[in-house]
Amino acid sequence: MPRPLPARLVRIAGPVAIIYPAVYLARRSGGRESTRVRAGARASAESGAESGAGPAGATRRGRPSADSTRLRQARLLEVARGIFVRRGYRGTTMDEVAAAAGVTKRTLYAWHRDKEALFRACVLIGAERFPRLSPDLLDPGGLRAVLERYVIDLHTELTREDSLGMGVLFQREAAEFPELSASIQRGHLDYMIAPLATFLRRHGLEEDGSTERTMLFVAMALSPLHNTMLVGLPLPDAAGLAAHASRCVAIFLAGRGDGLG
C-alpha cells in the first residue's frame, strides 16, 4: 500500500512548495565562535566522566578518545533532531536536549553555542546523507540503472520521517530566522545539485556551466514527495517508487534525443 505522510506532518505542512529537508548550512565563523574555546577545553575533561570511558577508550586519563567524542556528538544531534521535530524550534530547550542526550549543559554549549547553532548542525547531518554518484560510476545495467537507483535512494532519504519533520519544521519556523534561507538554497545546490550535475555532465547529460537539466531531473525524481506535501497524496510504496524511478529516467533520457540507456 502507498505510504501516507505521518498525520502530524500533514497537519503542519500546509501548502509547502518544493522542500529539501536536510541541507548544508553556511559555515559560521568569527568572534562568537571563539568565545567557546575555553569552555570547550573544560567540557572535554567532563566528557570523559559522562561517557564512562575507561583507559582503553581514552587518549589520556579522564578524557574520551576522539572517536568516542564524535560518536557522542552524532548521537546528540540525532536526539536533538527528534526533539526539534516533536516540539518545534520554539518549544525545544537546550536543557531538554542535554538531558535526553545524556550530556551536561556545559558540554552541550561547548559543542553548540546556542539553540540556533544546534539546529543548524541538526540540518547539516541530514544533508550529509544525500546520495552521491561518482562521475565514473556505472552499474552493470548501464546508465539507466544508475539513475533509477539514484531516484529511489534520494526519494527514500528525503521521505524518512525525521527528514520530513525537519523540512516541515524549517518551513514553519523560517520567519524566526530568515537569514538561513540563503544558506538553505546554497546547501541544496552544494549537496544535491552540484554532485549530480557533475555526474550527468560526465555522461553527456548536462551542458557545461549549466545545471538546468539536473534541476529538471531532481524535480521529476521528487515529484511524489512534492505531491504529498502540496496536496496530501500518499507516498508511493516500494513497487510504486521503482515504477516512478523507471518512468522518470526514461523521460529524462528520451529528452536527450539519442535513446541512451
The CATH top-level class label of the largest domain = Mainly Alpha
What's the SSE pattern? HHHEEHHHHHHHHHH
CATH level-four homologous superfamily name of the largest domain:
Tetracycline Repressor, domain 2
What name does the CATH topology of the largest domain carry? Tetracycline Repressor, domain 2
Spatial gap, N to C terminus: 30 Å
Q: Number of helical segments?
A: 13
Give the CATH architecture of the largest domain.
Orthogonal Bundle
Secondary-structure blueprint:
Layout (H helix, E strand, L loop, with lengths): L6 H7 L17 H4 L2 H15 L6 E3 L2 E2 L1 H26 L2 H8 L3 H7 L3 H13 L15 H16 L2 H13 L6 H23 L9 H10 L1 H9 L6 H19 L5
Antiparallel strand pairs: 1-2
Helix pairs in contact: 3-6, 4-5, 4-7, 4-9, 5-6, 8-13, 10-11
GO molecular function, one term: transcription cis-regulatory region binding
Organism: Novosphingobium aerophilum
Protein name: TetR/AcrR family transcriptional regulator
